[in-house]
Specification:
The protein folds into 2 domains: 135 residues, Chitobiase/beta-hexosaminidase domain 2-like (Chitobiase, domain 2); 340 residues, TIM Barrel (Alpha-Beta Barrel), CATH 3.20.20.80. About 7% of the residues have low confidence. Helices cover 33% and strands 18% of the residues. An 8-stranded parallel beta sheet has the order 12-9-8-17-16-15-14-13. A 7-stranded mixed beta sheet has the order 1-7-5-6-4-2-3. The structure holds ligand TNX. The site of ligand TNX has 10 residues, from loops.
Length: 530
């Protein structure tokens, strides 16, 4: 009798084991999908004895190893030492290039990630982390087998610029939430975070020579909340935090439109200004020699609504350029990345000629401080400096103007990648002036054929902006960002031949599980079987 029970138990256990499919590498829920995946047979199991071994040299190699260990430790409960001596999970840096490509080889005894660049190694780590079961996202120990399928992955991105944008002006986003967003971007191999630092409703970055920008201009936001701003120290902290995750910050000062917060901070920036003795009274501002306008200066009112296109800098006022010079200088000095975004969108109340004159002068200022300008697509109506970039959001004809000047285009078509667009008419927040953007719509477009006349060689990359007129906190960010940001990350990383909505919709639920574990309130798109 006893024998029979034992046999039954054994049989049942065996049958259960046989039913449980061991994971297959090419069926893993990787986002963005790697270029090449080759299946092997067998599996690698992470045990409590496991260590991470580093091979090569590079100032960030240890940090990348630690990053991996820190992600593996909480849920596995294993020690996972990182060393140059031994370990079954190997990170090998084979060069000192800024390569973003990598290779992963998994056998039943070893996992090895190889890249000739630190960024590539970091991306290999992100891929490896996604190969583990979703339970890895837990912060407490989970008793389970941590098994990886055997095989090989070879990967590299389609585009070198894969970005997102946070509008920290309409609603201020605190440093902690920006860092949180950076963490999420890193998981999906995005490498540029554009910060929209100024707009009509708020000025969010300390400028030491123009302190009222943040004192006054930073004091409110859409809806009349208290606003806020980053000190230069805090901005540097964001820059460093992003750099640790191979993400470059692109600061934007939007001008000549979208400038009410500056105009409300300094009366003398408004047209009709009359400065004492024709000189600036602040020690920090360069003295000016030009004809003084007649009228007394009046600062504009702070603005907390969401209309666009009604403010403008005074393009004929010399002080405007002295102002822009200081702002660009101070921000450039604390920005290691190559780009400075000058905005340039929706300047509906700036005369066309004045607009062109302004954009061209500001480009020169940016270039003087060693940066490359990016501007919203309207800037292509001016003569762009070589290397400068037009960010396509609305008008194809502007993208073509950029191309005809030999300049590159950054693809941010509002109808596809504007994260502030509602998913459908029932979405609790968001706008819909460009489109309703369901998950499949955000996924199903191809940068190299989206805008007529703009093909691969004209494109710098892809960026998904999150405008924040309706976004007030982290829950709002999560709701609009997930799951669309991973979809757009795949558009930017994975070559078009490899992309497929069916496949994406099968991979995304595993990410949903991770978000659930982490308390990320994502949008459960009805297009996906979560
Ligand atoms: C258009 S896109 C804008 C922003 C708004 C956004 C809202 C662009 C360059 N300008 O000022 O925040 O629409 O969706």
């Amino acid at each position: 009798m006893k024998k029979h029970i034992l046999a039954a138990i054994l049989g049942a256990t065996f049958a259960l084991g046989a039913c449980e499919k061991s994971p297959v590498l090419s069926e893993s829920a990787l986002i963005p999908l790697p270029q090449e995946i080759t299946d092997g047979s067998g599996s690698f199991q992470l045990t409590s004895e496991i260590g991470i071994r580093l091979i090569g040299s590079g100032e960030n190699l240890t940090r990348i190893g630690e990053h991996l260990a820190e992600k593996l430790r909480p849920a596995t409960g294993f020690d996972i030492p990182v060393s140059f001596d031994s370990g079954e999970v190997i990170l090998e840096l084979t060069g000192s290039e800024d390569s973003e490509g990598y290779e992963i080889q998994i056998s039943d005894t070893e996992v090895k990630i190889t890249s000739s660049g630190e960024a590539g190694l970091f991306y290999g780590v992100q891929t490896l982390l996604q190969l583990f079961p979703a339970q890895l996202a837990n912060t407490s120990v989970q008793t389970m087998d941590w098994v990886l399928p055997v095989g090989t992955i070879k990967d590299a991105p389609a585009f070198g610029y894969r970005g997102s944008m946070l509008d920290v002006a309409r609603h201020f986003i605190p440093v902690e939430d920006v860092k949180y967003f950076i963490d999420q971007m890193a998981i999906y191999k995005l490498n540029y975070l554009h910060l929209h630092l100024t707009d009509d409703q708020g000025w969010r970055i300390e400028i030491k020579s123009w302190p009222k920008l943040t004192e006054i201009g930073g004091s409110t936001e859409v809806g009349g909340g208290e606003g806020g701003f980053y000190t230069q120290e805090e901005y540097k902290e964001i820059v460093a935090y992003a750099a640790d995750r191979f993400i470059t910050i692109v600061p934007e000062v939007d001008m000549p439109g979208h400038t009410n917060s500056a105009l409300a901070s300094y009366a003398e920036l408004n047209p009709g200004v009359n400065l004492p003795n024709g000189k600036l009274d602040s020690v920090n501002h360069a003295p000016l020699d030009y004809e003084m306008p007649k009228k007394n200066p009046t600062a504009s009112e702070l603005y907390t609504g969401i209309e666009v296109g009604w403010s403008t800098f005074s393009t004929e006022l010399e002080l405007t350029y002295a102002f822009v010079d200081s702002v660009v200088q101070e921000i450039s000095e604390i920005t290691p990345g190559p780009y400075f975004h000058i905005g340039g969108d929706e300047s509906h109340v700036t005369e066309k000629d004045d607009y062109i004159y302004f954009v061209e002068r500001v480009q020169d200022i940016v270039s003087k401080y060693g940066k490359t300008s990016i501007g919203w697509d309207e800037v292509a109506t001016a003569k762009l400096l070589p290397g400068n970039v037009a960010q396509f959001w609305a008008l194809e004809e502007n993208a073509i103007l950029a191309k005809e000047q030999g300049n590159k285009v950054l693809m941010s078509p509002a109808k596809k990648v504007y994260l502030d667009m509602q998913y459908d008419s029932t979405s609790r927040i968001g706008l819909h002036w460009a489109a309703y953007i369901e998950l499949d719509s955000a996924y199903l477009w191809e940068p190299t054929s989206y805008a007529k006349g703009i093909s691969a060689e004209n494109i710098l990359g892809v960026e998904a902006p999150l405008w924040t007129e309706t976004v007030t906190n982290r829950e709002d960010i999560d709701y609009l960002t997930f799951p669309r940001l991973p979809a757009i990350a795949e558009v930017a990383w994975t070559k078009k031949e490899r992309r497929n909505w069916e496949s994406f919709s099968r991979r995304i639920p595993s990410h949903g599980k991770r978000w659930e574990i982490q308390g990320i309130g994502f949008y459960k798109s009805p297009k996906v079987n979560w």
